[in-house]
Design brief:
The protein is α+β, with helices and mostly antiparallel strands. It folds into two domains: 4-182, no CATH class; 307-459, no CATH class. Helix content is 29%, strand content 24%. Strands 15-19-20-12-21-22 form a six-stranded mixed β-sheet, sandwiched between helices.
C-alpha cells in the first residue's frame, strides 16, 4: 500500500462497530468516502458514510417528509457535543496543526431543508444525511493528525475512527424521542402549511413572533443561511389594520396568526434608514426554506419560485423590456421586445421584472437599496419613452398579472403611494398606514418642498 487511499478499504472493513457502522451501500469513492493528506501534509482528511440502526420512522410514526427536522436536531446535537466529547475530536480536527481549517462541518446551521441547497459546504440534512426505515444515515467529515503509513499508523487511524463511530452511534441512540418528535413535527408543519398558502390566496405568510434579524459569520455570510441574531431581536407582529390571517399547522394541529401576503397585490415595506426593511424582505425570501426550531423564521413561509429584481449593468441578449420602454436607448440593438447590447441598470431591472411576469412568478421582490430608481419613480428630466413602475401601476394595477410585488423603500414615495397595502417600520416594529393616509402625507410633503423651492427662487432670482 503506497497511499492512505490504498489503505482505506482495509481500514473500513474494521469499522463495523455497534451501534454505528460503515454505510457500504452509500459509499462513493472518492466523493463521500476518502482518507487523503491535506495540501500541506499536516493532516489526514476523511469522509465516511455511516448508518446507525435507529428506526425513527417506526419510533415516531409520522410522515417521512418531516424526518429532516429530526436529522437536523441530531446533527446539531453532535456539533454541540464535539467540543467536549474526546472521541468526537476528529470532527474538529483535534491534534492537527491547524484545526480551524477542518471545522466547517461544526458550523451551526438552522435550515432543515432548502430547494436551493443553501450552505452546500455545511453539515445538514441532505441526500447524504437522512433517516429511513434502515436507520439514521450520516456523512461524517473531519481530520486526523498526519502519521506514517505503517502498522502503527494504520492501527492508530483505525482506533480513532472506530471510537468516532461508536460515539456517534451512542449519541444517535440516546437522543430523546420527544425532542426528535418536536423537530420532526415542526419541519412537517412548515411543509404542509406552505402547501396551504395558494389555496388561501396567499404567496407568503409572516407569523407573529417571528424574528427575522440575522447573525452573520465568515461561513454563514448570506442571509438565507445566517443564524438568529444574538442580543436584541425585535419580533414581528402583524398590525391589525392589515388584517390578521390565521394559518393552520396541520402536523401539530395548532394554528398561528400573522400577515398574509396576497396573490397579485403590491405590498410596500417603508421606513427610514436602518429600520429592518431589508431584513424583513430577506426573511420573506428565506421563507422558501424550512428552518430549525430556534432559527426565528420557522413561521415565515413563502411559496417556491420567488423572483428578485435589482439594478446593475450587464449584457442583454434579446431581453424583453417593452412593458416599460417604448423605444430602446441609443447604443443598443433590436427592439423593446428583444434588446441586445450593454444594458443599463434600469434596462436590466426591467428585463428581470418582465421575465418574472412572463413565467408567472408568484412573488417579485426588490429593494430600493439595490434597485434602479429611474425605473420605479418618475423624474422631471425623464422623457416619455419610459413608463416607470409607479406610473404603470397607477394606470393599470393588473399590469403584472398574477405576480405579487413586495418591495422595501425609504425614498420611493411615489411608488409606495401606488401600493395596495403599506407597512411602515419604526424602531424595527411593523405599523400600518392606509394608502389614502400615505398619499395625504405625501401631498403635504410635496407642497412643503414646492414652497421651499419657491422661497429659494425668490431669494436668488438670477441663479
Amino acid at each position: 500500500m503506497d497511499t492512505w487511499c490504498d489503505a482505506f478499504p482495509d481500514i473500513i472493513q474494521t469499522l463495523s462497530t455497534d451501534p454505528a457502522q460503515f454505510d457500504t451501500g452509500r459509499a462513493r469513492v472518492p466523493v463521500n468516502t476518502y482518507l487523503v493528506p491535506s495540501f500541506d501534509r499536516d493532516a489526514l482528511q476523511f469522509s465516511l458514510p455511516v448508518i446507525v440502526a435507529r428506526d425513527l420512522l417506526g419510533e415516531i410514526g409520522l410522515d417521512l417528509k418531516g424526518s429532516d427536522g429530526a436529522v437536523s436536531a441530531i446533527i446539531e446535537g453532535i456539533k454541540a457535543a464535539a467540543a467536549e466529547n474526546g472521541r468526537l475530536g476528529p470532527l474538529r480536527g483535534e491534534g492537527t496543526g491547524f484545526p480551524s481549517r477542518h471545522q466547517d462541518i461544526l458550523e451551526p446551521y438552522t435550515i432543515v431543508h432548502s430547494d436551493s441547497a443553501m450552505g452546500g459546504s455545511l453539515w445538514k440534512p441532505d441526500p447524504g444525511n437522512f433517516a429511513d426505515e434502515e436507520g439514521v444515515h450520516l456523512t461524517v467529515c473531519g481530520a486526523l493528525p498526519d502519521r506514517p503509513l505503517d502498522r502503527t499508523g494504520l492501527h492508530d487511524v483505525t482506533d480513532v475512527l472506530s471510537g468516532l463511530l461508536q460515539a456517534l452511534g451512542e449519541m444517535v441512540l440516546r437522543f430523546p424521542t420527544d425532542a426528535l418528535r418536536m423537530a420532526w413535527v415542526d419541519s412537517l408543519d412548515q411543509k404542509l402549511a406552505r402547501d396551504l398558502l395558494p389555496g388561501m390566496g396567499l404567496v407568503s405568510f409572516i407569523g407573529d413572533d417571528s424574528r427575522p434579524a440575522r447573525e452573520f459569520t465568515w461561513l454563514r455570510c448570506f442571509h438565507r443561511v445566517a443564524g438568529p441574531k444574538e442580543g436584541v431581536s425585535v419580533p414581528f407582529t402583524c398590525p391589525v389594520e392589515l388584517g390578521l390571517v390565521e394559518l393552520p399547522l396541520p402536523a401539530s394541529g395548532r394554528s398561528i396568526t400573522g400577515l398574509g401576503i396576497r396573490r397579485r397585490e403590491t405590498l410596500a415595506i417603508a421606513g427610514s434608514n436602518a429600520q429592518g426593511k431589508t431584513t424583513l424582505l430577506e426573511a420573506i425570501i428565506a421563507g422558501q426554506d424550512d428552518h430549525a426550531l430556534g432559527d426565528g423564521r420557522e413561521r415565515v413561509l413563502t411559496v417556491p419560485g420567488v423572483a428578485l429584481a435589482q439594478g446593475g449593468s450587464q449584457g442583454m441578449a434579446g431581453e424583453d423590456v417593452s412593458l416599460f420602454f417604448r423605444r430602446i436607448p441609443p447604443g443598443l440593438d433590436g427592439t423593446p421586445k428583444a434588446v441586445r447590447g450593454a444594458g443599463s441598470s434600469s434596462l436590466v431591472m426591467a428585463s428581470q421584472i418582465q421575465r418574472a411576469v412572463r413565467r408567472g412568478a408568484p412573488l417579485l421582490i426588490f429593494d430600493e437599496d439595490t434597485a434602479a430608481p429611474n425605473l420605479l419613480v418618475p423624474g422631471c428630466v425623464q422623457e416619455g419613452e419610459v413608463e416607470v413602475l409607479s406610473s404603470l401601476l397607477a394606470r393599470d394595477p393588473s399590469a403584472l398579472g398574477e405576480t405579487a410585488v413586495v418591495f422595501a423603500a425609504g425614498a420611493l414615495d411615489i411608488l409606495v403611494a401606488q401600493a395596495d397595502r403599506i407597512i411602515i417600520l419604526r424602531d424595527h416594529e411593523a405599523r400600518a398606514i392606509s394608502p389614502r393616509e400615505f398619499r395625504a402625507r405625501l401631498t403635504t410633503h410635496l407642497e412643503e418642498v414646492l414652497l421651499h423651492l419657491r422661497e429659494d427662487e425668490d431669494r436668488c432670482p438670477d441663479s
